[in-house]
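Researcher: We're teaching a course module on how sequence relates to structure. For the next exercise, students receive a sequence and then see the predicted structure as tokens, so they can try to spot secondary structure elements on their own. Here is the exercise chain.
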Amino acid sequence: MKPTREEKISRMLQKEFGDIFLLYAKKMQGVIISVSDVNVSPDFSLARVYLSIFPNEKAQDVFSLINIDQKSLRFELGKRIKDSLRIVPEISFVLDDSLNYLEKIDNLLKK
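Model: And here is the predicted structure for the students to work with:
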């Protein structure tokens, strides 16, 4: 089964945001930001980016900084994908806490 254009675009955005957040996290010592998934609307005007932030204690603070810098992150994305997409999608970030949930279940099972 061949991937659709939406899937290709979401994978490209995931890769580009991964590179952007690698540089973004270097400014903050001891923080790892990973892009776990990207969902794109069918018309490519909206993108929902799921972020995992480690360590958990700093997740809310870092996530609020990311939301404050949302416009500059979108601008950086636009510079990187200008040859691939005509329109840079509006970005909404979502804190992905699935790893925390898995860790909590694992700890409960160990008891």
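Model: If you want an answer key for the exercise: The beta strands are 32-40, 46-54, 90-95. DSSP finds four helices and three strands in the chain.
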